[in-house]
Amino acid sequence: MSYKNPYPTVDIIITNQNQDQIILIKRKNPPLGWALPGGFVDWGESLEQAALREAKEETDLNCTLICQFHTYSDPDRDPRHHTISTVFIAKASGIPKGLDDATEAKWVNLSDLPPLVFDHKKIIADYLENFVQGSSSHFL
Q1: Residue 2 lies inside a defined structural domain of this protein
Q2: Could you tell me if residue 1 is inside a domain?
Q3: What is the pTM of this model?
Q4: Stretch 54-75: mean pLDDT
């Protein structure tokens, strides 16, 4: 009997010290557009390791994970596959460079986000509600 399972992925909200900017990447592969850094979890890798690896591969920055934020599992969140993404919040400083699957990486103001691929608009809206404007912002 063969089973069809969702793919585990991670996404990372990388914020600056002032919590007014995050890093977005411009995707090299379809679906094209702006997205949070992230990707597939490798065999033998923890979610935390995957988040740090993907952040480094796509932005060239070393991040510090703050916390695990939320898991998103809508089967339609990724047009390529059914994925389940665990989102982490991290801090970093420096100038990001788009590497690996990213043609560009940059700091963007939370008040001026471009259109986003996948369900990343919802993820960032949840982040804004729960961590930036909400009572949980003391965790950052």
Answers
A1: no
A2: no
A3: 0.91
A4: 97
48 is catalytic: no
Domain count, the chain: 1
**Structural domain range at position 65:** 7-139
Q: Exactly one of 54, 58, 104, 129 is catalytic; which is it?
A: 104
Whole-angstrom distance, CA of residue 128 vs CA of residue 83: 23
Longest dimension (CA), the chain: 52
Alpha carbon distance 138, 27 (integer Å): 32
- pLDDT tens-digit map of 78-128: 999 999 999 999 999 999 999 999 999 999 999 999 999 999 999 999 999
Tokens (6 digits) for 9:
């992925």
Where residue 37 sits, what CATH number does that domain have? Answer: 3.90.79.10
Q: Does 60 fall in a domain? A: yes
Residue 39 CB contacts under 8 Å (≥ 6 apart), including other chains? 9, 10, 50, 54, 57, 58, 101
